[in-house]
Amino acid sequence: MRSFSVKPRLLLIELHHLGDAVLSLPFVRGAGSDFEVHVLCRPAARPVYELLENPPTIHEWLPPWASETVHSPLQSLFAARSKGRELRPLAFAATTCAWADPRTTLLAEATASPRRIGFPTNRTNFYAPDSPWRARRLILGGLLEKFLPRLTSPLQANPDHPHLQRWNQIATALGVACDFTLPWIKTLPAPPERERKSKPLLAIHRHARLPTKQWPLEKWEALLATESIHSRFDIVEIAPTGPVTLSAVDTPDIPSLAAVLCACDALLCHDSFPAHLAAALGKPVVSLFGSGEPRWFAPYNSAHRVVQSRVCPLHPCIDRCGMSSYICLEEITPAQILRQLELLSFT
Known about the structure:
Layout: E1 9-14, H1 18-23, H2 25-31, E2 36-41, H3 46-50, E3 57-60, H4 73-87, E4 94-96, H5 102-110, E5 115-118, H6 132-145, E6 153-154, H7 163-174, E7 201-205, H8 217-224, H9 227-232, E8 234-238, E9 247-249, H10 254-263, E10 266-270, H11 273-280, E11 285-289, H12 294-297, E12 307-308, H13 327-330, H14 334-342
Parallel strand pairs: 1-2, 1-4, 2-3, 4-5, 5-6, 7-8, 7-10, 8-9, 10-11, 11-12
Helix pairs in contact: 2-7, 4-5, 8-14
């Protein structure tokens, strides 16, 4: 009689943003060799995981702390425990999260998973602990962890290492390995052919989710008006905006964005989801960083292409600016970006 082996179930909790979901993909791919992987994510992140050749089982949840509605810490904790109990019948052998967050630790414990692997809330594991608003969260998180269930396998991150290294640490604790083989996701059919010349095709994405990551539009216009960028590249603008007339393409959903990036040779954008998606396809990315910290969140294989101005004494503020204006972005010049673009090489 033929026998079938049943893999133990593993729950990955990733309730942050789209770019963070992309950064978890090598772990999902690698863990799939030994586990039946389940992912708990925001509804918007589902299409990211569905881009994998072998997608995990996806559970959607928009936690209360992700909404614009005012909520108390107790509301968040009750919601996390309730969601964990809802998932309990799946009998996970292990749960994990790459973020230092007592809410997800409580959620993991509520699933009754015997192994809970992650990062306790302390200065080593908590991003930007010196920012005033982050420091308050760190103190609150540390206090909560004294009374809430603990991780069974607490890990300590190196604050100088990228976020991806946390997934490597979790993989090691589970006895698996992240799969960083490029591309991380399926390559999708390119959109209808555009007129192409002999130059590389550079995709431009001028939007950012937060103003603390948005390079001023007038500076984008100045950059895109230079002759040097057009002499080096054919350019396509994704989700176009502003008065500069370029070849443009709409990307109404994540698969269409991935398809456009597949057809391009490189991407110029902010510290954003498209940067990580392009990197997951193996494309070189020139990314503009404002409030964020590239040591932690630069696109994979493109940390050396980051454009940043470290003039702000409060950097990294992690999206809550304490200055009178976004000087970290205002001080970035088109010349800095052009220098990085000139260094791109294509085979």
